[in-house]
Design a protein that fits this description.
This protein has helices at about 10-25, 30-35, 40-45, 50-65, 75-90, 100-105, 110-125, 130-150, 160-165, 170-180, 185-200. It is an all-alpha fold and about 200 residues long. It has two domains: about 10-65, Homeodomain-like (Arc Repressor Mutant, subunit A, Orthogonal Bundle), CATH 1.10.10.60; about 75-200, Orthogonal Bundle (Tetracycline Repressor, domain 2).
Length: about 200
């Protein structure tokens, strides 16, 4: 029996994203999304087959807004910085979605288009072979890890305060670093960390 056309993938994805934003990624289920849509779980199965398919729809919804054309007139490091920051901006309001970008990166058209754009810039910069493989993986790891750190363990959080209070005789570097961390904004932390990574590609 053909599926009715009254419920499109974008609406299902929006409902799944609402569940994740409100209750966290573990709360995502066919039942929860069906309830969000005001329908039975069995009825939702007429449109999607599993939670995994829901996850893919959510990733595509969040990242479909990312512009993958690098800005012209910038050196390659500036182009990569812009591409990475666009991903950060797209998921900033939905940090719980970040792990899904890793598990669904092979199937998400938006992730694939972004990765292709990154590889194009790297190739133009002369990064080839295994170096290019590691560079793409490193940029993916950085953006995913940095967003999770920003939302789960920010520099302005209680962990930094606790570390700053450690006995300086035993942890002089940790205590001093934590004291300085309080003056670093999330944006500065992200950009400077990315700059360190990109500078490493110059070598």
């Amino acid at each position: 029996m053909p599926r009715p056309r009254s419920l499109d993938p974008a609406r299902i994805a929006a409902a799944a994203l609402a569940v994740i934003d409100r209750a966290g990624l573990p709360a995502l289920s066919m039942h929860a999304v069906a309830k969000e849509l005001g329908m039975s779980t069995m009825a939702l199965y007429r449109y999607v087959d599993s939670r995994e398919e829901l996850e893919g729809l959510v990733v595509e919804l969040v990242l479909s807004t990312v512009e993958v054309e690098p800005p012209s007139g910038l050196p390659w490091r500036g182009q990569l910085t812009t591409l990475v920051e666009r991903v950060r901006d797209a998921v900033a309001a939905h940090p719980q979605v970040v792990p899904l970008t890793l598990t669904h990166r092979h199937r998400s058209p938006s992730v694939l288009r972004w990765s292709e754009a990154v590889l194009r810039v790297l190739t133009g910069a002369g990064v080839q072979g295994v170096d290019r493989v590691v560079a793409l993986r490193g940029l993916l790891a950085y953006v995913i890890g940095a967003i999770q750190l920003e939302h789960l363990g920010p520099l302005s959080g209680p962990g930094t305060v606790a570390i700053a209070g450690l006995p300086r005789a035993e942890f002089p570097h940790m205590a001093e670093t934590a004291r300085l961390a309080g003056s670093v904004s999330p944006g500065e932390e992200f950009r400077r960390g990315l700059d360190l990574l990109l500078r490493g590609l110059d070598g």
